[in-house]
Design a protein that fits this description.
The complex is a heterodimer of chains A (about 200) and B (about 325). Chain A has about 200 residues and is α/β, with parallel strands linked by helices. Chain A is about 30% helix and about 25% strand. In chain A, strand 4 (about 55-60), helix 2 and strand 5 form a beta-alpha-beta unit. In chain B, helix 2 packs parallel to helix 3 and helix 5 (about 160-170) runs antiparallel to helix 9. The relative contact order of chain B is 0.19. The chains are: A alpha/beta (about 200), B alpha/beta (about 325). The structure holds zinc ion.
């Protein structure tokens, strides 16, 4: 099965073209240019859009706008190509790329998205990693000092384990179906709903 | 065929038009009800809704037009100005569709889209003309010399847009959000000369509506709840008269200044019955094309220089033209 995978939920947009588990190519850029990466991946692999059999897309949590760019891209592709889509949590993809690690994504406003038993949003100080816990992701990099003080171990900033690599989205993707059934994972209500009486 | 997509504010819209400007379908899914409880458009709420609606709306537009993507030769999408998070949903979807089919993409300016609502069949307007664009987000006078290219801006609002003034006034008078249309309706039973609301005098060809809104606020405050209820139609009619008068005066002044022989009115406020009557010499956009829609975006795409594959793959949206 030829799968196109991408994740634009974090500052580093990732993409991969994977054929029956074999990674044909991987790229990184930003959400707005993810389609340039997708185009390059197919060209480099000599693959035609017609040959795509599934799309695996990162559903967040992460930047709301980034998540939407990814899902709108997936929905547009699915509509035009008639291929099914599967959503993969950005936290799950990070976890798959660093076995045993705790994925921590920067949620801005002084908070992080983490995968404990389930995806949650909390302040870095509320996250009490047991000593020696490996933390990966944009949140781990941003709150390195807080998390290291709590006993966590964090790879160097440039370590690829901090990025939700799209090869793992392709690997984790299950239940390919209609694109509109794949929903974003925001984990936060819009501000207006919070202040509304 | 040209597929148009619009997600700049609170309408998720898609349309299919023919290469010669006939509308085959024009689907608009308004989020007004969703935002009513907030009393205004909440960008994050709007963006979330656009994502839910964008591809279903495109599919509906294709279905309604009796065409498929195989018939589409050009995709036009609003790239700005507007709410950036909202725009990016439409731009991402449009880019993906265009790329998947190797179609050219037109990055349409929303304001030029409004002007292009005049170029659709069956009764297109031929430039040159002076165009009053009045909506909830914009109020400007444009010197339109040709269908392709950016018109010259002769004047613009210094504060609120005309549509915003209508909606804010409507809220002060206790109409729901957005209340501009209801205000227009109630004003028909009121006396437009009951209250003398000031028409702001600003230099040049610009507009200002914030003083008017304050005047209405003071007038309403002076009344008891019961009086306010009784005089609501008069207040609405007088307030509407003041806005319309400001728009009409400035528009005629601009037409005279540039020697325009033809005047046109576009945008949500162009649906206002009093404005249409007061500016009887002007060509107003068809009612269905006044508020945000994608047929006008497809129409603007028709007269734009499309970006060919792969030039648009990194296309970004822009919040403002500045
Ligand atoms: Zn508009």
């Amino acid at each position: 099965m030829l799968i196109l995978a991408f994740d634009t939920a974090t500052d580093v947009a990732t993409s991969a073209l994977v054929s029956d588990g074999e990674v044909l190519g991987e790229r990184r850029s930003r959400a707005v240019t993810v389609l340039e990466d997708i185009d390059a991946l197919l060209r480099q692999a000599g693959a035609h859009t017609r040959e795509l059999e599934g799309i695996a897309v990162g559903i967040g949590p992460g930047s709301f706008t980034g998540v939407r760019i990814g899902l709108a891209t997936a929905r547009g592709l699915a509509l035009a190509l008639g291929v099914p889509v599967a959503g993969v949590s950005t936290l799950d993809a990070l976890a798959a790329g660093a076995l045993g690690a705790l994925p921590v994504v920067d949620a801005r406003r002084g908070e992080v998205f983490v995968l404990e038993d389930e995806p949650r949003v909390l302040a870095p100080a509320e996250l009490r990693p047991s000593p020696g816990t490996l933390c990966v992701g944009s949140g781990a990099v941003r709150y390195r000092s807080v998390l290291e003080a709590a006993g966590a171990e964090i790879p160097a900033d440039q370590d690829e384990r901090h990025v939700p690599r799209a090869r793992f989205h392709a690997q984790l993707a299950r239940d390919f179906g209609p694109a509109e059934a794949v929903e974003p994972m925001y984990l936060r209500v819009p501000d207006a709903d919070k202040t509304r009486k | 065929m040209i597929l148009g997509i619009e997600t700049s504010c609170d309408e998720t819209a898609a349309a299919v038009i023919t290469p010669d400007g006939r509308i085959l379908s024009n689907v608009v899914s308004s989020q007004a009800d969703l935002h009513a409880r907030y009393g205004g458009v909440v960008p994050e709420v709007a963006s979330r809704r656009h994502l839910e609606l964008v591809t279903p709306v495109v599919q509906e537009a294709l279905r309604d037009s009796g065409t498929t993507l195989d018939d589409v030769d050009l995709v036009g999408v609003t790239a700005g100005p507007g709410l950036i998070g909202a725009l990016l949903v439409g731009v991402a979807a449009a880019k993906a569709i265009a790329w998947a089919r190797r179609l050219p993409l037109a990055a349409v300016d929303h304001l030029q889209g409004h002007v292009a609502s005049l170029y659709l069949e069956p009764d297109p307007v031929e430039p040159p003309f002076l165009c009053l664009l009045a909506s909830g987000g914009h109020t400007m006078l444009l010197d339109v010399q040709e269908r392709n290219g950016k018109p010259r801006v002769l004047g613009a609002t210094l504060d609120d847009a005309a549509g915003e003034a209508f909606d804010k006034g409507a809220r002060l008078l206790g109409f729901g959000y957005p209340g501009g249309a209801e205000l227009d309706h109630v004003a028909r039973n009121g006396d437009p000369s009951a209250y003398a609301f000031p028409v702001a005098r600003v230099p040049g060809l610009d507009f200002s509506f914030s003083g008017l809104k304050t005047a209405l606020l003071y007038a309403v405050r002076k009344l008891t709840a019961e009086e306010g209820e009784r005089r609501r139609a008069d207040l609405a009619a007088s307030y509407q008269r003041a806005i319309v008068r400001a728009l009409v005066e400035r528009t005629r002044q601009a037409a005279e200044q540039i020697g325009a022989t033809r005047i046109a009115v576009v945008g949500g406020v162009a649906a206002n019955s009093e404005l249409r009557a007061a500016l009887a010499e002007a060509r107003a956009a068809p009612l269905a094309l006044c508020t945000d829609n994608a047929a006008m975006i497809a129409s603007a795409a028709r007269f734009s220089n499309p970006i060919h594959y792969p030039g648009y793959l990194g296309l970004d949206a822009y919040a403002s033209t500045a």
